[in-house]
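Render this sequence as a predicted structure.
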Amino acid sequence: MDKATELFPVLETERLVLREVTNKDAQQIFDYLSDEEVMKYYGLEPFKTIDEALDEISWYQSLFNQKKGIRWGITLKEQGEVIGSCGFHNKVSQHYRTEIGFELSRKYWGQGLAREAIEAIIQYGMEYMTLHRIEALIEPPNLPSQRLVEKLGFTREGLLRDYEFTKGKFDNLFIYSLLKTDVEN
């Protein structure tokens, strides 16, 4: 049974506050989602307008409202502005399973912030969303994301051939999983 509340949960770590993203955050979302390097493996073209950022925020809100997932804005405690996001989507409640996604402004790469945020949401997902399995689908050339999930205990299960059609082409994706039993052990 899902113990998550109707209110959007705010999570705190040593350096971060993970919170709901609102339309007030559109400029910050646009700033990093318009960066080609950030969007390289995101499945979308770099954003060209603020309306695309507002559409992304609307998608985040629909995940939570429809109980299909949740997406947190990643903020530094002392700043408050959104520097990335992370969360769950494609939640399948009857199978206690979801997919994880994350991205971070390039300015903050290599500082351990994504790992800190993802550790917090995994703990939340296992405890309050009663997840048993979290999947990560990652393009083979995206080595930094592969290393990150491997450090967090995810296991690569295989290659999903031509699994996604994005940016006018089919992409292979590695499928990784983290089970609640992996975390407990």
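Summary. DSSP finds six helices and eight strands in the chain. Residues 66 and 96 are 16 Å apart (CA to CA).
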